[in-house]
Amino acid sequence: MAEQLTGLADDRALLGRTSTAERVSDILRSRIAEGYFPPGTRLSEDGIGGALGVSRNTLREAFRLLTHERLLVHELNRGVFVRVLTVEDVEDIYRTRALVECAVVRGLGDPPYALESLSAAVTEGQSAATADDWKAVGTANIHFHRELVALAGSERTDELMRSVFAELRLAFHVVDDPHALHEPYLARNREILGSLQRGDRRAAERLLETYLTDSLERVVEVYRRRVGEDSAT
Predict the structure, then answer these.
(1) Fewest CB atoms less than 10 Å from the CB: which of 88, 102, 204, 219?
(2) Rounded-to-integer distance, Cα 226 and Cα 220, Å
(3) What's the number of CA atoms in the CB half-sphere (13 Å) around residue 181?
(4) Which of 80, 82, 75, 74 minimizes the C-alpha distance to 34?
């Protein structure tokens, strides 16, 4: 925990002079998504508050916001913990993804589409794979889907999916073989990008729908086994 708090202190500059619970929650959300605080970690009010230089009340409000987003859970007489998802949580996350992401692609309208950020996410994933950094490949994959959603040009949709993708990262952090989990989707991201570059949103939607169905099955299989192993120990 000491090493985590030392790194977190570097984020204090992000708060600026207008330190708010929303800014603190943004920092903690990013750190949770990065795996800095893995699922099941107890978050120390004194340690985090001291590292960020914020009051206990501000930190508690940030915890409340992230609890509302289902990233944290408060356990009576024990404290606040990074949430450990259930298999049912993972399934619901993918249902939400399919509803939103496929609808975004379906509603794109006539090409050409602004695909620079989507293409950059594909390149990011390929570079991470070349460096054999498979956790970074998972991050790039999240970036790909975030930029896909951003094609809708809707701040509300972006905000909704920001929380969904942060929850998804909680599941990814439990998986013990990120290479096997993420590697198959590098090529599939390129295929979706290629369809959109050709202006064929219908093909992109079909690819995406199959992609999400396959990904759900794969993640649930691995997650169910992993969570079962942890509960047995």
Answers:
(1) 88
(2) 10
(3) 25
(4) 82
Do 141 and 127 form a contact (C-beta atoms < 8 A)? no
Average pLDDT over residues 210-227: 88
Helix (H) or strand (E) holding 19: none
Nearest in space to 125 (alpha carbons), one of 186, 188, 195: 186
Q: Which residue type sits at 14?
A: L
Q: Could you tell me the two tokens for 104?
A: 């975004």
In degrees and rounded to multiples of 5, residue 108 shows phi and psi of: -70, -25
Contact 105, 186 (CB under 8 A): no
Q: What is the pLDDT of residue 15?
A: 58
Q: Distance between CA atoms of 4 and 81, rounded to whole angstroms?
A: 15
How many angstroms separate the CA atoms of 47 and 196, rounded? 47
DSSP 102-169: HHHHHT--SSP---HHHHHHHHHHHHHHHTT-HHHHHHHHHHHHHHHHHTT--HHHHHHHHHHHHHHH
Residues 152 and 63: their CA atoms lie apart, in Å, by 30
Q: Is the pTM of the predicted complex or chain greater than 0.85?
A: no
pLDDT category at 229 given cuts 50, 70, 90 is: low
Residue among 38, 25, 44 nearest 170 (CA):
38
How far is the C-alpha of 164 from the C-alpha of 30, rounded, in Å? 13
Sole residue written with tokens 């992401």: 101
Report, as an integer, the average pLDDT of 179-195.
94
DSSP 8-state class, residue 65: H
CA pair distance 188, 173, nearest whole angstrom: 22
Beta strand pairing status for 72-75 and 42-43? unpaired
